[in-house]
Structure formats: structure tokens, C-alpha cells
């Protein structure tokens, strides 16, 4: 076989641009041809050659997994509708020389983008630290030099290059696309790529030209279920089959529920804002013979309708929520808006293993035959010892935990025939204590059908035992059959041909180990109005049993056959009525999630590479810290706490998301109601008055004061009733509510207009008129902040902000700033009548807010 030092092109200068491997490398008929084409050999590459190839092909990372730059994050922040509109209004203000307005708007845009980019950068750093904590490595055969011996080394997967020789063992993720050189009892999980829910046997093979078999290939995204192998890397990075599968599935999900809701509200307001300046200009030109001098006022009115602080408020609330989750609950929010989506989620889809149950079975002693359990423990121990396996598989580990060590160690181990995926058995040959030296015992355990086929049983007895095993399986138990045989001792090796004429001993039943916090977390999620659905690739009976043990009614369990019988239009009805979907392939998981998104906001919690399509299909994807690397890269939230606490952490994430959503809803309800009322009043007054109702500078200062006070809403504490249900914004209902509150606000403004005309300075003093309306606007905005919040809690930051806003509105005309803003003090009678207007407005607003809350609670 060729050596790496003879690699064609090994002396080529390093080329930093990524070069793609020809597909024929992996598909070459013989292993020898593969090694020749890769310029490699069974002793692996030299360090120098590996470095040259790393420069040529690039690091072995999946497309899109590299962190975004700060500039890219800042630009992405401008995609927010309100941020984009604010930027346009700032540029328009600068174009009409309204420098104060332009400066404030552009500063708000910059602060919003910086806060969002900073939050995402901190999340990325946390994920990077987590990535280092559970860094994925591979065992690689490398040589220091051409004539030096090779040695196994643990290297980061990102350092792998085509031609590297790697070792694979039980539980190892396949680090790249590889072709097998040697294998012993190798089976792999490759559900993410093929949808096969059971391990697939793999073995080295030389294939005839044109053969399409891939039994000799293992792909990145799969993992070793059993056995061991040595293989050569044939594809890395974007050339792997898993990268192609991700490209096909699409790495970016569509707009989430929260995105759709906010965008619906945003663009309705955007259209109104875009119409406002032309309407103001035309109306003033037609009725008041005013020209372009009203353009700054028109822009100020449009800005007055804009919730300028929305990006800042939202980002601050999200950043505080994500920091709280990371600090107190070990939840890393990788995409800040995902916290909104998890707060709005009313359906959570979860995988069973690793979420509801731990990834290890436990022996059900009550359903197991004692003799069978004893011999299964003996077989597990001596197979592990005599075959020199590195670690026991999960079933053997459960057997060893359930049996007495003295019972195994009393035997003498002779040899073992490890588990083989074709025969589905494992056999240990032992000598029993106290028996004749010339007698050995075969202890055989494995799949029920395969063990029964090797036992000396009549057909009726075989059928009875098979039916008993099927009944246990139907109850959600995993079943192992055990048999023994007495054989004369011999020198020649034991083979699988000796596994015949066995005496059946009994059955061993296994149940899943429930996650310790799962039951409580399910109750907590139900109390929060979140419906949990189990979407798993496991057996229907196993999934149903785990749900029943946790107090979750599984109902009728659906399988892929039920899903395939329905069209995409018919599936949502079945999905909403079903609790457990079992035996699902990755494609079926994603299809169930997409169906549930019809009318619901859906989260998906998974940890395997086979969960990646479902993570992309959900509104928000969540995984545990132990998840496969590509799964962590695909998730929006990473549960970095202790293993088995996933659902418990999810309940905390839901609460934090609803807290942020309640803050956002409060801000939108407060600012849009107030701003809409002010705009309606200013447009009406502008057509009736011989002068502008407020000067552009006054509008700007008023907006600045209101916006600064509303920053306190990010530190508000919503009521428990708000956190007890999903907090989703419904654009049409929301716009109806703020329209009603806005009309109330406009009525209070116009009533103040009447007071100023009849009992105040009249129309002869524009400065006094401006001062009166400025004061009333800030006081009504203070009332709106108190009465339209999502809570009745006395949060100190909010009350201090409201008090400061009211104080500023009452005192500013009396300060030296008053004349600078063209405002003069008003007579005492005005303040007495204003108190009457504000009292009436406050009582009416409180009644309307109470009616709105009652309808929301009833809905």
C-alpha cells in the first residue's frame, strides 16, 4: 500500500482556498484504489503532509458554523422593521436640517444594534466555552516523519484532513466521511442521514464497479453503536454527506411566530408613518397656506408615532433574561429573539431519550426470570473481560448493576464471542465453580428471536415464549433472551457454530430510567399552558410506558404509517390530537413539527443529529449540552446545566421568555396608545390652529422624556397570571386595543385643547398654548405607563420613572429651559381644569384596561 510521503501533489505550495475532493474517491471500487487516490496508507499521514492538506482543504467544520463577525451582527440588527424605519426617518430628518431629531434617532439605532450584537456575542462566547468543555476529538494515526513509526493521537475533529487514518470505538461519533479499512462487529446509528432507527451493520468491502452499496462507508453525523474499526477519511467540511443533507434541509428556519407578529404590527405602523408626512404637508398647504416650512413638523409627527425605543427595550429585556438564565439555570441563549419564541410557545415537542428518560436502561427485576438475570450478568461480565472490550454497552451495564459481583467472579472465564449485529447475540464461555474440569458452559444472551432459533424447543413452546416476549415489549419493556449449554472442554477455538442446541433459561426485561426532574417539569409546563408532545424514534410501547410512568397520558400512539397516510393539509388536525409519535425518522419529526406550527408556536427539544431537521422546522430549537456538536450549532437555546435537567431548565426558559414578552407587550401597548393619540390630536389641532400645535423641538423633547422613562419597563416584574400562559402578540387584536386606547388619549388631548382655548391663554399666545399641551402630554403619558402595564406590581424603577416624567412635565415651563423651547408658565385655573381632565381620563383608562385584561384572561 502506498505511503503518505508518495502523495501526488504533496509538494504543492499551500493553497488557502478550499478545494473539493472528487466524488470518485469515496466510491472507488477497492480500498487500495482509495488509499492510492488519497496518497495515504495504513500508517497514516506524516505531520508535515497533514499540515499541507489542512492549508489546502481548510478546517473540517460544517458550513455556517463559524461565528458571525461584529459587523455582520450589526447589519443584521438593521433588518428589524422599526430599526430600519428609524434609520430612514433619521436620514430624512438630516436631509431637512432637523439635526436634533436626526442625531437622537441615529443614536437610538446605534444603541439598539450594539445591544443586540453584544448580547449575541456574549451568547456565542458562552457556546464557544461549552464547545471547548465538550470538545469533539478523534483518534488519529499520525507519524512525526516519513520513516518514523506511527502512533495514535487525540486531535480536534477540525484538524482532520482527507487521507487521515482514524480509529473508531463504541460510542464514538464518526468524525468525517470515512471508508473502512478494518472493522470488528461494527454497527452505526445513521438516522440523521437515512432515517434508519436501528443501528446499521458496516464492514470493509471491495465493490464491483458501479455498485451503489455504502456498507463500507461511515458518514459524519452518525455514531458507533457497537464494535470497532479503522478507517481512512475521504471527505471533510462541506464535502461530507451530512453537510449536503443540511444544505438540502436548509439551515435557516422561516420566520418564527414572534417575528410574524411583530412584523405584522410593524408594517401596519410603517405604512401609516409613511403616509403621515405627505398628508400633513398637503393639509397645511390647502387649509393654512403653509409650505415646506411644515416639513420638520411633519417628520416630527411621523417620528412621534414611531416606538423609537422598541429595539432598545426589547434587546435590554432579552439580554437581562438571557443573563438570568445563564447565571441561575445554565441556559445559553444563542439567538436573542429565540427567548421571545420560547415565551410564546404553547407546544413543546421533546425526544424521549435524554429528556424524559436517561440514556441508560435499568433491569426490571419483577418482570425478569431470576436464573436468566444471573446468567445474563455472568455473560456480560466475562464477555467484557475476555474480549477486552473498552466499556460495557448500556444493557450490559444495567445487567452488571442489577447482579451480585460475587456471582460472576465465582466463574472462570474461558473466552467470549462478542455481540455481532448479524447474529444479534453475545456468548461467554465459562467454567462453573465446583464442576468437572472437562466441562464448559456457554452463556448466551441476545435478541429473543435469535436465541429461540438456537434453542432445542418444540414449535408450541417457541411460540409461547415468543408471545410472552411480545407482551413484555408491548408494555414498553426491552427484552433479552438468555440460554445456556454444557459443552466438553477443548483446545480448538469456540465459534458461532457452537451456539446451537441451547437450553432456554428465561427472559430479562429492561425499563428506561426516568429523568429525575422530568415528572415535576412536565407538571410545571402544564401549569404554564404548554402542551408537551413526545416525538421519538423509539418503539411505540417504550415511549408510551415512559409517558405513563411520568404521569403523561400517551393516548393513541401514532407511527410513520399514520403520518404517511395523511396529506400536509390533513396532518395538523391529527398532530394536535396526538401526544406521542413513535418510530419517527428525522423527516417525520420535522413534518410533525411543521404541522403543529399551524396555529401554534412550537419549540423542539432534542439532542441527536437525527433531531437537526426538527430543530430547523420549529419556531425555537433547544438542545442539551451533551448534544452532538452539529445539534448544538443548530439550536437557539443550549441547556448547559446538569444532565437530565433539560425539561426543568426548559420551564425556567419559558418563564424568562414570557417575562421578556410581557415587557415588550407593555411597551408597545403604552407607547403606541400614547403616540397614536398624540398624533391624532396634533393632526386635528394643526388644521384648526393658526400656528403649529407643537414645534418640532418640543415634539423631540417630549419624545425623549417619554422614551427615557420607558427604559424602566425593562426592569418591570410581570404578574404571575401573565407568566402562567403563552404570551403571543396577535397583530389584529393588538392593533384594535391600541386604537381604542389611542382614541381615549386623543380625547384627553382635545379636551385640553378646549381648556387652553376657553380658560387659558386662548389663541393669542402660542408659547403658553405649547406649554399647556406639553405638560398635559407628559402627564397623560405618565398615567398610561402606570395603567397599561402587564402588571400591578410596584416596581420601583417604573414608579421613579413615572414620578420623574410627571415632575418634568409640571416644572419644565417654569425653568430656564422653558423660554428656550418657546414655552411660558400658565395660570392656576388651567392646572385646576387639567386635574379634572386627567382624573376623568385616568378612571376611564383604568376601566378600559380592566375590561381588556378580563377578555384576555377569558380567552
**What is the CATH class name of the largest domain?**
Mainly Alpha
β-strand number: 21
Q: Looking at the structure, what is the overall shape?
A: elongated
Write the CATH architecture name of the largest domain. Answer: Up-down Bundle
SS element count, helices: 32
Structural class: alpha/beta
Number of domains: 4
Within the CATH hierarchy, at the fold level, what is the topology of the largest domain?
Answer: Calcium-transporting ATPase, transmembrane domain
Largest sheet: 8 strands, mixed
Proportion in helices: 40-55%
Q: Return Rg in Å.
A: 35 Å
**Terminal Cα span:** 73 Å
Look at the structure and name the CATH superfamily of the largest domain.
Calcium-transporting ATPase, transmembrane domain
Proportion of strand residues: 15-25%
Low-confidence stretches: 1-22, 248-252
Average predicted local confidence, pLDDT: 79
Q: Could you outline the blueprint of secondary structure elements for this entry?
A:
Elements: H1 24-27, H2 31-38, E1 45-46, H3 47-57, H4 70-77, H5 81-95, H6 99-133, E2 137-143, E3 151-156, E4 165-168, E5 177-189, H7 191-194, E6 200-201, E7 217-218, E8 223-235, H8 241-249, H9 257-287, H10 295-305, H11 310-329, E9 331-333, H12 338-344, E10 347-350, E11 357-363, H13 370-386, H14 394-402, H15 405-409, E12 412-420, E13 425-431, E14 439-446, H16 448-453, H17 459-474, E15 478-488, E16 503-514, H18 518-527, E17 531-535, H19 540-549, H20 560-564, H21 571-577, E18 580-581, H22 586-596, E19 602-605, H23 612-617, E20 620-624, H24 629-634, E21 637-639, H25 646-688, H26 696-710, H27 720-723, H28 731-758, H29 766-787, H30 796-811, H31 817-820, H32 828-858
Parallel strand pairs: 1-2, 10-17, 10-19, 17-18, 19-20, 20-21
Antiparallel strand pairs: 2-3, 2-4, 4-8, 5-6, 5-7, 5-8, 9-21, 11-16, 12-13, 13-14, 14-15, 15-16
Amino acid at each position: 500500500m502506498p505511503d503518505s510521503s508518495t502523495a501526488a501533489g504533496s509538494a504543492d505550495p499551500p493553497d488557502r482556498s478550499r478545494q473539493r475532493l472528487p466524488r470518485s474517491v469515496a466510491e472507488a471500487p477497492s480500498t487500495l484504489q482509495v488509499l492510492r487516490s488519497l496518497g495515504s496508507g495504513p500508517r497514516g499521514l506524516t505531520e508535515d503532509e497533514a499540515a499541507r492538506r489542512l492549508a489546502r482543504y481548510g478546517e473540517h467544520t460544517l458550513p455556517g458554523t463559524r461565528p458571525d463577525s461584529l459587523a455582520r451582527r450589526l447589519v443584521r440588527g438593521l433588518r428589524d422593521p422599526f430599526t430600519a424605519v428609524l434609520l430612514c426617518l433619521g436620514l430624512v430628518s438630516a436631509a431637512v436640517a432637523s439635526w436634533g431629531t436626526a442625531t437622537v434617532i441615529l443614536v437610538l439605532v446605534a444603541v439598539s444594534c450594539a445591544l443586540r450584537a453584544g448580547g449575541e456575542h456574549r451568547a456565542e462566547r458562552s457556546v464557544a466555552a461549552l464547545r471547548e468543555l465538550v470538545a469533539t476529538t478523534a483518534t488519529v494515526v499520525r507519524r512525526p516523519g516519513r520513516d518514523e513509526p506511527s502512533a495514535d493521537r487525540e486531535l480536534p475533529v477540525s484538524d482532520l484532513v482527507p487521507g487521515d487514518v482514524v480509529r473508531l470505538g463504541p460510542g464514538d461519533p464518526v468524525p468525517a466521511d470515512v471508508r473502512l479499512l478494518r472493522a470488528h462487529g461494527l454497527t452505526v446509528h445513521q438516522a440523521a442521514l437515512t432515517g434508519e432507527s436501528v443501528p446499521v451493520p458496516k464492514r470493509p468491502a471491495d465493490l464491483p464497479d458501479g455498485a451503489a452499496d455504502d456498507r463500507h462507508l461511515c458518514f459524519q453525523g452518525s455514531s458507533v453503536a457497537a464494535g470497532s474499526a479503522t478507517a481512512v477519511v475521504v471527505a471533510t467540511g462541506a464535502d461530507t454527506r451530512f453537510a449536503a443533507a443540511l444544505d438540502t434541509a436548509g439551515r435557516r428556519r422561516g420566520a418564527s411566530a414572534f417575528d410574524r407578529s411583530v412584523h405584522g404590527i410593524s408594517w401596519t405602523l410603517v405604512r401609516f408613518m409613511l403616509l403621515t408626512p405627505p398628508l400633513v404637508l398637503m393639509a397645511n398647504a390647502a387649509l393654512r397656506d403653509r409650505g415646506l416650512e411644515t416639513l420638520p413638523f411633519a417628520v416630527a409627527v411621523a417620528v412621534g408615532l414611531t416606538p423609537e425605543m422598541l429595539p432598545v427595550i426589547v434587546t435590554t429585556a432579552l439580554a437581562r433574561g438571557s443573563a438570568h438564565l445563564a447565571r441561575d439555570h445554565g441556559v445559553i441563549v444563542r439567538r436573542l429573539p429565540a427567548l421571545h419564541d420560547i415565551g410564546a410557545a404553547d407546544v413543546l415537542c421533546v425526544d424521549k431519550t435524554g429528556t424524559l428518560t436517561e440514556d441508560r436502561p435499568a433491569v426490571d427485576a419483577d418482570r425478569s426470570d431470576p436464573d436468566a438475570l444471573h446468567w445474563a450478568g455472568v455473560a456480560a461480565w466475562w464477555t467484557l473481560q475476555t474480549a477486552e472490550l473498552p466499556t460495557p454497552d448500556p444493557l450490559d451495564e444495567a445487567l452488571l448493576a442489577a447482579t451480585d459481583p460475587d456471582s460472576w467472579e465465582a466463574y472462570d472465564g474461558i473466552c467470549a464471542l462478542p455481540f455481532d449485529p448479524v447474529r444479534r447475540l453475545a456468548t461467554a464461555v465459562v467454567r462453573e465453580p465446583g464442576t468437572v474440569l472437562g466441562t464448559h458452559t456457554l452463556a448466551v444472551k441476545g435478541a429473543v428471536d435469535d436465541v429461540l432459533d438456537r434453542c432445542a424447543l418444540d414449535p408450541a413452546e417457541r411460540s409461547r415464549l415468543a408471545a410472552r416476549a411480545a407482551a413484555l415489549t408491548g408494555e414498553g419493556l426491552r427484552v433479552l433472551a438468555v440460554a445456556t449449554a454444557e459443552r466438553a472442554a477443548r483446545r480448538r477455538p469456540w465459534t458461532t457454530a457452537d451456539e446451537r442446541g441451547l437450553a432456554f433459561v428465561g427472559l430479562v426485561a429492561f425499563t428506561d430510567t426516568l429523568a429525575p426532574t422530568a415528572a415535576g417539569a412536565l407538571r410545571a409546563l402544564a401549569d404554564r399552558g404548554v402542551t408537551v408532545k413526545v416525538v421519538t424514534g423509539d418503539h411505540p410501547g417504550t415511549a408510551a410506558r415512559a409517558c405513563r410512568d411520568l404521569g403523561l397520558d400517551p393516548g393513541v400512539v401514532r407511527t410513520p404509517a399514520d403520518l404517511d397516510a395523511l396529506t400536509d393539509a390533513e396532518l395538523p388536525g391529527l398532530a394536535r390530537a396526538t401526544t406521542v409519535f413513535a418510530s419517527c425518522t428525522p423527516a417525520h419529526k420535522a413534518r410533525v413539527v411543521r404541522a403543529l406550527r399551524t396555529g401554534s408556536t412550537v419549540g423542539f427539544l432534542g439532542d441527536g443529529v437525527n433531531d437537526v431537521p426538527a430543530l430547523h422546522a420549529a419556531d425555537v430549537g433547544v438542545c442539551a449540552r451533551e448534544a452532538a456538536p452539529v445539534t448544538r450549532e443548530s439550536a437557539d437555546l443550549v441547556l448547559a446545566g446538569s444532565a437530565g435537567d433539560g425539561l426543568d431548565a426548559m420551564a425556567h426558559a419559558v418563564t424568562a421568555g414570557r417575562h421578556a414578552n410581557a415587557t415588550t407587550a407593555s411597551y408597545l401597548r403604552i407607547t403606541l396608545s400614547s403616540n397614536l393619540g398624540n398624533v391624532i390630536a396634533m393632526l386635528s389641532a394643526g388644521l384648526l390652529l393658526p400656528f403649529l400645535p407643537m414645534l418640532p423641538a418640543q415634539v423631540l423633547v417630549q419624545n425623549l422624556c417619554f422614551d427615557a422613562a420607558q427604559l424602566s419597563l425593562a426592569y418591570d416584574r410581570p404578574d404571575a397570571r401573565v407568566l402562567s400562559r403563552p404570551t403571543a402578540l396577535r397583530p389584529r387584536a393588538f392593533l384594535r386595543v391600541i386604537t381604542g386606547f389611542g382614541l381615549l388619549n386623543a380625547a384627553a388631548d382635545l379636551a385640553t385643547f378646549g381648556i387652553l382655548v376657553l380658560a387659558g391663554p386662548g389663541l393669542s399666545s402660542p408659547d403658553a398654548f405649547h406649554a399647556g399641551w406639553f405638560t398635559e402630554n407628559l402627564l397623560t403619558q405618565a398615567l398610561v405607563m402606570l395603567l397599561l402595564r402587564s402588571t400591578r406590581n410596584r416596581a420601583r424603577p417604573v414608579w421613579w420613572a413615572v414620578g420623574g416624567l410627571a415632575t418634568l412635565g409640571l416644572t419644565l415651563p417654569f425653568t430656564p429651559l422653558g423660554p428656550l423651547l418657546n414655552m411660558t408658565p400658565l395660570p392656576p385655573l388651567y392646572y385646576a381644569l387639567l386635574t379634572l381632565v386627567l382624573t376623568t381620563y385616568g378612571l376611564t383608562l383604568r376601566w378600559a384596561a380592566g375590561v381588556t385584561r378580563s377578555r384576555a384572561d377569558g380567552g
